[in-house]
Amino acid sequence: MDSQLISELEAIGGELLASSFKGCDEIVIDQLGFTAKISLWGGHLSSFIQNGFEDLLFQSSNDGSDTRFGRKHFGVPVCWPWFGANLKHSDLQAHGIARYFRWELVEVGRFKNGDIKVVIQLESEDHPLIEDMWPQAFELRQTFRLGDGFQVHFSAANLSYESIQVSEAFHTYFYVGDSRSAVLKGLDQVEYEDKFVGGRHKQEGDITPCTYLDRVYVNAPSVTYLEDPVFNRRITVETEGTSSVVAWNPGEALAKERNDMDNMEYQSFVCVESANALDNAHEVGPREIYHLKMKVTSETLINS
Predict the structure, then answer these.
(1) Which residues pair with 212 in a beta bridge?
(2) Where are the domains of the chain?
(3) pLDDT in tens, 121-180
(4) Are 15 and 9 spatial neighbours (Cβ–Cβ below 8 Å)?
(5) 3-class SS of residue 132
(6) Taking a C-beta distance cutoff of 8 angstroms, is the pair 5, 17 a contact?
(7) Is-above-0.85 flag for pTM?
(8) Are strands 233-240 and 138-147 parallel, antiparallel or unpaired?
């Protein structure tokens, strides 16, 4: 890695640590108000801890080393350029390409208000294996803004001369004290597809308990709230450029069947994913670039 980048990283209180997972590095940033970790394998924010509080993000203790593509359940993985199963090629892994390759650190610094800025990039031409999975050339970038909460700004450039059909998600694993008592708000009256029980439904009221869920809410609002009475906090998720919200938790029985998750870990997270899926998949024209944003903040939960 460029020595200038290392110096700039050190100047903002960061360091680059060797990771045991896939032999890739991890960026660790330690500030007065928070600590954060960014995994270059899969290119995602894996931890964000504000002083005095629990981590906002969940990390599974199971590294998935006995699965084909390795660990999946931690932080904010990016699903791109397809969400869920690849409908044309069933042999390809679920949730696309972006979270299964090494990203590169390309910029670090500060925003004008002092927030930390970290930019990472994934270019298809740097990974020959990608061509077998997705023949159209692309460049992805993520800008992380870390301060009072965190923001992820994702951009995708279609470098080919063909239009491509894309579905995607910030597959965010929020750490909670107990998913069985967590409450997801903001989706009342929104239509969703239920992948566990089948069919299209309309949400009635809040979602609780947040277990045994696999729902894609289409044409969803841009703000949702996850309330956690155990950790006594309310997490707010605000998005731009996404129109779907995915709520996922395998529940007790399915968690025990998985080989990439410990049996009781379903109690420790709720996935609230900012996405463009199903009806909200979209076309990206030749040489076109587009942007998605997600902002996550938290506050003490005040009980009425």
Answers:
(1) none
(2) 3-300
(3) 999 999 988 988 899 999 999 999 999 999 999 999 999 999 999 999 999 999 999 999
(4) yes
(5) helix
(6) no
(7) yes
(8) unpaired
